[in-house]
User: What shape does this take?
Amino acid sequence: MLRLPKLDPDLDQPLYKQLFDFFHEEILAGRLPRGEKIPPTRELALRLGLNRMTISSAYELLESEGLIRTHVGRGSFVAAPPELFADGPMASSSSSFDWEKRFAPGLPNEAAALAAAETTISFSSARPSAELFPIVAFQESCREVLLSPEVASILQLGSAHGYPPLRRHLIAESRSRGLMTEDDDLLVTNGCQQALDLLQRLLVRSGEGVLVEDPIYPGLRNVFAHAGVRLIGAPVGPQGLDVDSTARLVRSERPRLLVATPNFQNPTGTTMPETARRQLLRIARDAALPIVENDIYGELRYVGQPVATLKELDENGIVVQVKSFSKLAFPGLRVGWVIGPRALIRRLAELKQYTDLHTDHLSQAVLLRFAASGRLEAHRRRILEAGRTRLEAVLSGCERHLPAGTRFTRPEGGMNLWVRLREPLDAAALLERAQREGVSYLPGSVFEVALRQPGGLRLSFAGLPAERIERGLAILGKVFQTGLEQARAERREEPAPAIV
Ligand SMILES: Cc1ncc(COP(=O)(O)O)c(C=O)c1O
Assistant: This one.
């Protein structure tokens, strides 16, 4: 039975933080054991006479710290993280062998930055909202798959290329959209992430150059950086990858591969216009440079007209496209795919087989059922509608709340928007202050390749309802404005240099 906390509204510490501290202590002291259900937000709000939002904020913070887990439809449960037991029984079993010394170099420690950035109104994570997941439709899809005569073959080991019925479905769809020619084939992967990893292993060797957008999605940078590849960053402007700079870098650096995200790039949210895409294809063709097109956000267009993908525009067979169900549907199912020339897909499938034999069949079968039953289409409509509202909220929030002179991109889809703060503001330095006020974002340093952008930061808006986006931006606006005023005051206080 949960003891009720004594919260004091007169303290400097906000109520949600007091509530968080209370649960934190109860869990650590073992008074709330692992697996224990904690009261629903509505019930606790009533019992404590508080706003439900305060309870939700405390629960979100607890979840981001790994202390509780929320299961949609079932509630929140205590889930103390393993590190809490570091001094307990687990610690005594650790050996003296120094594993740290054996780790391959070059993996940046983003996990810490990401974990630290998880707070109350979190603009930190480019993932769909769990509250928009169509749980009942998903459960129906699972039930239909489990009760179908195919269940035995789903449970059997299968082809490295993917669960054949899903593969056929994706191939038919890709062909009808002009994404696949007769010479192309398709490999199902564990999300885009595995596709990128396999492509790196097949196409580039340590020391060779790969041209990527700067700033870039860290998961992509890490795949290549870890393999000892030389990362060449091409700047991203308001219209996506800057094609003139790319042409210069291709000439001077002679990369072996180019990776681009022409639709709603992560982290900037920018989209390349068709002319720029055609120019990029000409540059790549003339330099015999293969392109990996990451189209993970392509389905998430909320406003404006779709632009043909590089894969559709490619006349020379130099584009390989990677896609996934992660942003449109369920990132936890880990299902993505690669489309490219047959010979390349055959080699990728071999590599995949060495890694994990094949992607999990049950996830693939359920996604196929979800798509073929029309439920994916219904979900897509809902996601696009929510995305449109959230995009409007983030754009209008930036306009109304960020200090004059702040610049930001104007995405037409996807999950992210890029802000450039006025000099001399440093987004990483201001993050702590923003977190104290209950808002987080990821600073530009997380996405850097070569170009330092201390004033840059990413706002991931798609996972937050409009009113939280609005509230978060009002708080950020104040934090940045205070930062500017302090910087001005400090400049005024600097002693004038001696005149000699
Ligand atoms: C640009 C980009 N590529 C790849 C991924 C990984 O996607 P998946 O979940 O399909 O592996 C992400 C996830 O955030 C992403 O933003």
